[in-house]
Amino acid sequence: MVQEYRIGVIAPHLDGEYYGRLLPHIHQAVRKRQSQLFAIQVADDYLGITALVEPLALQLIDAWIVILPSASASFLELLSESGKPFVCVGFQSPFPNGHSVLVENRSSMKAAVKHLIDHGHREIAFIGNLDQYDLQERYKGYRDALEEGEIPFDERWVVKTKDNLLEGGSLATEELFHRSAPFTAIAAGADLNALGAIDCLAGKGYQVPRDYAVTGFDDIHQAAINYPSLTTVRQPFEQMANAAVRRAFELMEGRASDNERAIFVPAELIVRSSCACSERSQFTTSDDFDRYLLNLSQLRSSLHSITLNNYQMTKSLINATKDERIDISKLFWNLAHWGCLALWEEDEEGRRHLAVRQTFSKRGEQVPPEGRKYDLQSFPPLDYLPYGARPGGEDIVILHPVTSELKNWGYIALAGPLDPLNNFVANDLSRHTFTILAVALDRELLFEQVRSIAEKLEIVSRTTNDGIWDWDLTTGKIEWNIRAHKILNMSASKLTSQPRSLLKLVHPEDRRRVGFAFTLSGLSIQPIQLEFRIQGAEGQWLWVYLAGDIVRDASGTPTRLIGSLADITEKKINEARITQMAYRDALTGLPNRLMFKEQVLAAMADREHDRLKLAVMMIDLDRFKIVNDTMGHHMGDLLLQHASGMLRECVGEQDVVARLGGDEFIVLLSRIEGAEEIHHVANRMLELLKKPFVLEGQEFYLSASIGACVYPCDGEDVDALIRFADLAMYYSKDSGGNQLKVYTPALSSKRVERFNMESALRYALERGELTLNFQPQVALATGKVYGAETLIRWNSSDGKTIQPGDFIPLAEETGLIVPIGQWVLERACRECKRWIRAGMPSLVISVNISALQFQQDDFPEIVRKVLEETGIEPFNLCLEITEHTAVQDMEHSIRMLGELVSIGVKIAIDDFGIGQSSLLWLKKLPVHIVKIDPSFILNMIEDSDDLAIAKAVIDMSHSLGLSVTAEGVETEEQLQRLQQLQCDRIQGFFTGRPMTSEQFIAYFKEIANW
């Protein structure tokens, strides 16, 4: 009996010249083996989605075929860990033990270029999207042909295209002319690029092949029927599909050879007229001519089908969305005859599952009941698939994510036969329907929210203590509800429906402002938000808050003003009381720091005019802590009140004594002529404080350490004056206390220390004083080592180990973080290369990137160069940026991260949760990993708030397809709780302290053996 298997295909699209030609052959090969085919379409140009991240259908599928890099590194890592075999088509497997089916791109392109050389061309350009594996191989073949033909290479001949489409080829050809590099032929890495080049040349008045020769690669249908017809390389789609399916079955049945992990399928050079061969040479047999006519016929049918599909899509969209709830049975008009839409739901314990929302079957076959729940890895429901999707059946099962900018909704499964015309052009317009479906679900959610808001507003309007008003601009009359009348009837004048009756109630000083707000000029600036006074019936002034906004008709003309009115008199009284409290110390009644700084600023302004000086004195009671600790806080408070009174006696009426907190006081001598006046006041303070005084029968003695500085001699801003007075006070305390010290520049020891550290840091790289440690990151699901975070240490020349927290801020402030960060990136990648050579190819090295590095426009190019020089793959590198850095400039961050992701590196958001954490930010930023800040992990067992935050970050990240790393894990209990929350990875002292590279290699081998 034949063993039945389920084969999964992951591809960006399921139609078009490449994917649409591979898929039918794969389906046919799978049917012959009496097995089922599941196709997952992952690309969404609207949302920028290019790869499958979540483990969809992972438990159902026996083997996977991945067409181009359409599965994320994390998904492939899951496959590798699960033991599920997978075959990569069109690109090298990222794992050394993986299997691939590859076209002989290099030798085939070499043959195409040699053909041009045989025509006498020696100035041959190459255009192609070099970010793709197969195009890189074709470029190597181009270089091989030049070298073999002894043609000197000119780098100006090579132009990287933005894509494999017509426009990319046209723009690349324009760039060749712009570079003024002489060329007579173009070897394009893809046929559409080649056809775009021909169009560009024709637009400039050149003829192909008379003036320029052009070759392509792929042999798409348009290549043969273009004029001139395109010389190209024919991709063996049927052989590729058969090889991929055959290898998948060999892997499942244990028959695959470890010696042949890459299957290379030969391609064929097809000679036509664009290289200057005869136009008729493409028809060497009658079969060639028949194929040409068939291409013309099927392309005509495809174009006709696209026209009909456009009409059908519009019609279906109208029918499916005319009600509040979308009807998917009307939305999918193509050959799909069975469908199941499942959306994400959360249970009481916060675990996610897919719940069936809608189904349809155009043939009346069974469908899963609405509300039935499925795990992501077990979707779609096999028991309910239609008869045609059985093993060996004609149908395939298509799976697609349903995602919008607003939300990751879930997945849809469709079953039906393949459209035979989808392999000629991107004919399957239903791919756009998935975006329409997601947007329609957004609309349903918004409808529900609007309905809920309307219901709440109706209740609020009946129950609120605020007044509601409605001004009809066509009649010029205002309606006030009962509460509004009650608020305004407390005034001395009567309120009517005339707008002017409101202005009569307003305080004269506020009337002009209120009147302007109600004009169209005022309303065009912003909605009304006003606080103003009205006169009460007894002559007192009452405060009210009025808010409102414009309602416009369909043409945008204002028709009404609607708003609310509230009595805020008590709130204003409380604010005044709070403001007073904010400026005064509650214990002593003295001004606090805020009020003191304002008074210093005022005194500085006065000194600008009279050219005199002022002084700031910092006072610390020397033995107050002893009294406070031995006699208790109550006695300490009495002592502070007594001391504050004595200090106040020592200064003049225009001077200020303030309390900063604890036993620290600060004094402003607002007008002095010289330092002798400071000494006079300080001596008086010291004399008074050292006299014994009695509190509650106890005799106390005090002394004080006093520091002072002078404006403008020592500083010209408030903060500097306070800082310098503080430095002088500490110098006084270090000198024994009970004395005055006046600031001099020599006292700025911290500045000297900072200068010395900065100087030493500048030479730290040259002297080899910086070293790297690595802290392991462990996958919770498997217990395997995922990778390590790079941590820098500074072993200074004096033998001290300086922690990053002490020198990194200085490096950022001085700009030294840029060369240091560059060194860390290069060294970390080199160490990762050592790990790979030691047998750890899939490990990920994480490197922290500073805000200054992230602001460099050429940073992606720096990363690309480091990867090339160190020889590690992009998926081995993870760049970590802090949440604060990511949200500083969203436009820059989205562009920069997009370029880095296109290289293939992972992106992690570090310190998540302590800043502007938001689903909005994560949704917009192209990132892969979220790292929970250690502050939430430290107390998550004891603190339910920290646990809730950690859970929220994990769930929110997973809903966006992101993985989560928890930092600072120190206990087994924390690890177990994070496992329950389905956190992906952890790092911390529990699994490994920071270690050298050699120690990390030993650590990995020990964990692997265990």
TrEMBL record:
Coiled-coil region list: none
Keywords for the protein's UniProt record, in alphabetical order: DNA-binding, Transcription, Transcription regulation
Keyword flag Transcription regulation: yes
CDD domains the record matches: EAL, GGDEF, PAS, PBP1_LacI_sugar_binding-like
Cited Gene3D superfamilies: 2.10.70.100, 3.30.70.270, 3.40.50.2300, EAL domain, PAS domain
Cross-referenced InterPro entries: Biofilm_reg_signaling, EAL_dom, EAL_sf, GGDEF_dom, LacI/GalR-like_sensor, Nucleotide_cyclase, PAC, PAS
Location of the PAS domain: 453-514
The PAC domain, residue ranges: 528-580
Residue ranges constituting the EAL domain according to the UniProt record: 754-1008
Keyword Oxidoreductase: no
Boundaries of every GGDEF domain copy: 612-745
Record's protein name: EAL domain-containing protein
Taxonomic classification: Bacteria, Bacillati, Bacillota, Bacilli, Bacillales
